[in-house]
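Exercise 3.2. Students should predict the tertiary structure of the chain below and write it as structure tokens, then compare their answer with the key that follows.

Predict this chain's 3D structure.
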Amino acid sequence: MKNNTFQFKNIIVGLFSFLLIWEVFHLLLNTHTVPSPLETIFYTLSHIGVLSQHSSASSLRVITAIIISMLIGCPLGILIGMSHRANKLISPFLYFIYPIPKVAFLPVFMLMYGLGNTSKIILMVWIIVFQIILSMRDGIKQIDLIYFKVMDSYLVNRRQKIRYLILPAILPNLFTGLRMSIGIALASLFFAENYATTYGIGYYILSAWTKMNYVEMFSGILTLGFVGILLFKVLDYIETSLTPWQAQRG
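Answer key:
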């Protein structure tokens, strides 16, 4: 409970710090291209319905991509973490493809899967899945060998070893990887939603920019920030529920 209160206070303090810096820039620049935070907040509240539609569309794309990425990345990460042969075969490909900016593949996915939601979700999966695979693999490699020897002494099978040793040990790594991926996925989604999209916070921001409605544009940026915070808080809640020992340690 104290930890949740502390995190909530951090969010509030961070928000007010951001608004204060924003207000300073607004006063220093003295230009209509950077509206005041107060004006932007009032605009956001008065258009909460439209912004909810756009942010919900973006959130649904991100959540869908996360679920698909976990279904692919978790088993594959566990496989290459437990199998030396699989690690030797797959890791070179991962090391080659991981540093490449994944957003560069957006034109390829659009050519293959069209301009709709499918190509946008596949782009985010392409971003998130490698982070999950590497997080799971590295998490397994960090487990002390003595724990594997203890499990072997009880003659447990592979499924039991995964359930009672590997999964509890690597869950924190998984959530860390997801947090890192969400920020990159949202940035890439902002770029992807500028093509053949009717709803999406990225589309909303760029549309406002082309209309030179800067209050609307900053309102979209502020909403995108809240979408990111919400996704992070959902991850925090799930992590606390699945790894209570981590919360006690923190």
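Discussion points: The two ends are 12 Å apart (CA to CA). The chain has a mean pLDDT of 85.
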